[in-house]
Amino acid sequence: MKIEQLYSRYKDIIPDFSGFLEYANRPLKKSFRINTLKAKKDSILLLLKDLKTEPLPFYSDGYFLREKCSLGNHITHSLGLIYAQEIASMVPVTVLDPQPGEVVLDLCAAPGSKATQIGQAMKNQGLLVANEMNRKRIVGLLHNIKRCGLLNEAVISLRGQKIDRVLPDYFDRILIDAPCSAEGTIRKSRAVLSHWGLKNIAVMAKIQKGIITSGFRALRSGGTMVYSTCTIAPEENEAVIAYLLQRFPEADLMPISIPHFKTRSGITKWQGETFDKRLASCARILPQDNDTAPFFVAKITKMGVCRHRVEYMGKIEFQGSAIDFFCRRFGIAVKRFQGYAVFQENDLSYIATPQAYSFWEMKAIRRGLEVGKIYGQEIKADNDFVQLFGKNPTRNFYETEEDEMKKFLRGKIVKVVPTAHLEKGFIILSYKKAPIAVGRYNGKEIKSAVKRERRIPL
Question: Is a pLDDT exceeding 80 seen at residue 458?
Answer without folding.
Answer: no
